[in-house]
Amino acid sequence: MVLDILCFEINSLFIGANLDDTAFAAHVVLCNVVSIFYCIPLGLAAAICTYISMALGKNCPKTAKTLAKIAFGLGIAEGVFFLIFF
After folding, report:
1. How far is CA 48 from CA 4, 8, 42, 53, in A?
2. How many Cα atoms within 13 Å fall on the side-chain side of residue 68?
3. Of 2, 29, 55, 60, which is least surrounded by CB within 10 A?
4. CA-CA distances (angstroms) from residue 74 to 27, 39, 44, 64?
5. For the chain, which residues make up each domain, given as ranges?
6. Residues near 78 by beta carbon (within 8 Å), at least 6 away in sequence
7. Quick check: 20 and 69 in contact, CB under 8 A?
8. Please, which residues have CB within 8 angstroms of residue 19's CB and are 6 or more apart in sequence?
9. Between the CA of residue 72 and those of 48, 80, 84, what are the distances in Å?
10. Among the residues of the chain, which ranges form H helices?
């Protein structure tokens, strides 16, 4: 996570040094949109992993497998949603 933030900051420094204010503002907006694309799947993955781990802890492998299939479907649906609307 720190490396990700560091890369964004270094990239912003290069853009700010080489381009005008309008291009830098567009770059900042684009970085914020890309962060949304990154954070939503990250939160979804953490939540699904928690549910699957709880199911495995209760010794319910069928439930865990069902949750994994649902998570896979949600991941595909989210990817298609971002592909179509963004």
Report:
1. 23, 28, 10, 8
2. 11
3. 2
4. 29, 15, 9, 15
5. 2-85
6. 40, 41, 44
7. no
8. 27
9. 10, 12, 18
10. 2-18, 21-57, 61-85
Q: Match 């080489």 to its residue by tokens.
A: 18
Radius of gyration, alpha carbons of the chain? 18
The amino acid that residue 26 corresponds to is A
Q: Show pLDDT as tens, one digit a residue, over the chain (86 residues).
A: 678 778 878 877 887 787 788 888 888 888 888 888 888 888 989 999 999 999 999 999 999 999 999 999 998 998 898 889 87
- On whether the pTM is more than 0.90, the answer is no
* Residue owning tokens 């991941």: 75
Q: Which residues contact 12 (CB under 8 A, 6 or more apart)?
A: 24, 27, 28, 31
